[in-house]
Amino acid sequence: MIRHTPNLVAWFVAALGLLPGAARAAAAPPPNVVLIFPDDLSYADVGCYGAKGYSTPNIDRLAKEGVRFTDFYVAQAVCSASRAALLTGRYSNRVGILGALGPAAKNGIAKSEITLAQVFKSKGYATAIFGKWHLGDHDPYLPTDHGFDEYFGLPYSNDMWPNHPTDKRYPPLPLFNGKKVVQTQPDQHLLTTWYTEHAVSFIEYNANRPFFLYVPHSMPHVPLFVSDKFAGKSERGLFGDVIEEIDWSVGQILDSLKRNRLEDNTLVIFSADNGPWLSYGDHAGSADGLREGKATTFEGGVREPAIFRWPGHVPAGAVCHEPAMTIDVLPTVAKLIGADVPADHVIDGRDIWPLVTAQPGAKSPHDALYFYWNRELQAVRSGNWKLHFPHSYRTMTEKKGGGGKPGEYREARIDLSLYDLQTDPGEIKNVAADHADVVERLTRFADAARHDMGDSLQGR
Fold it and tell me: Is 169 a residue whose pLDDT tops 70?
């Protein structure tokens, strides 16, 4: 565990830059923000979203003390693309990061992009990431090149190592501290504990200055590992053990906030990057009736848990059914802390604070949300309607995976299909023939996105 010694001079200098003149002493300090973002955690993988066979009391507590979104999305249902959108407030197609970057990928998040961490730095915040980065594994793409003061974790997915069950070409897995590789092939049983210890230490060190803490857990992405503290504890087997340890981590962070009297001045956000990797069977999560999973634009791939908790500011026990997306996090928190959003970038996200605070009559600020897979615009959602354009996708065969070994996918195809997600969240009944006007309206939205961001399905 890393221990920090408080640097009061650094805090004082930073604090002077936060608030103007004589009003400084009287003004309320800007909130700290903690963003917890597990890898491959799916819609129904925590208790307050319907998980069974294990318990998540700390994550459930976040929902009891904050707002829980039922229709919250990622921009693409895969690691790197999803994180690019989260950290920039922009569809990943604008950022130029698609799919999942592998070791020594020649591209990564561009220097010209403005990340969440840089937005916080503009207001004097301390910033840290403890966990999986996956936006480039070397200079100039590492977290400390993009606004983070501290980084400890894996540069990409934990299965990109020589022990992969089907691909042995990966190099030894590196563990970074800052820009330095401090271990290769680290003991993955300890990853969740290590990330948590760093997070708690960071909170304690920065208790007297505003901070942004990003904890993108490597788990429950396969291969699954859990510490001895939780091994064999749940009825769901190893997957349940892993989720219970992530929940413990959330509890440790909440306890640290309380111990340092920061609870009432910290916004905690919990979400995840994509739906279940279904080919891994019992080592994958559950989307609980939502269609398909990771690497698809169906609800099981792109709909995620999302909880926002800030006592005294976010109403306890609220539930929001309006559609929102991870791209909304950056403009929302920027406004909250009085920071400017990048004026020379298209920011696709919108301020969803009225939804987070359950303001009467608050509606989604988006006319439409767009779902790309790679460069294909496959679906668009507007209100309760979701329109899929004809495209291919992968679905499971009868050969299921299990025990850490993947099963097999086959290619399937969907024709033009319209679903009413209010009554049919499982995207089962195609009602396009009955609602030609809705199909036409959503197609117009899609055409605007194609003109703006392209669409390889149409050669644009």
Answer: yes
Q: Which residue has the tokens 């507007």?
A: 382
Using alpha carbons, select from 416, 425, 423, 160 the residue that is nearest to residue 302: 425
Model pLDDT for residues 290-345, shown as the tens digit of each residue: 999 999 999 999 999 999 999 999 999 999 999 999 999 999 999 999 999 988 99
Q: Is residue 3 part of a domain?
A: no
Tens-place pLDDT, residues 333-386: 999 999 999 889 999 999 999 999 999 999 999 999 999 999 999 999 999 999
Contact between residue 217 and residue 153 where contact means Cβ atoms under 8 Å apart: no
- Asked whether residue 325 falls in the same domain as residue 443, the answer is no
In 5-119, where do the E strands start and end? 32-36, 67-73
Among 403, 401, 364, 400, CA closest to 385: 364
Q: What is the predicted pLDDT for the residue at 20?
A: 42
Query: H helices within 173-236, ranges in order?
Result: 191-205
User: Of 363, 387, 415, which residue sits at a domain end?
Assistant: 363
The pLDDT assigned to 27 comes to 59
Whole-angstrom Cα distance, residue 358 to residue 361?
Answer: 8
CATH number at residue 303: 3.40.720.10
Which H or E element spans position 174?
A: strand 174-177
Tell which residue, 303, 264, 155, has the closest CA to residue 218: 155
Structure tokens at 197: 């210890």
Q: How many residues does the chain have?
A: 460
Dihedral over Cα of 233, 239, 243, 245: its sign: positive
Minimum mean pLDDT range among 36-40, 101-105, 366-370 = 101-105
Q: Which residues are catalytic?
A: 79, 134
Q: Check residue 204 and give its pLDDT.
A: 98
Contact assessment for residue 195 and residue 249, using Cβ atoms and an 8 Å cutoff: yes
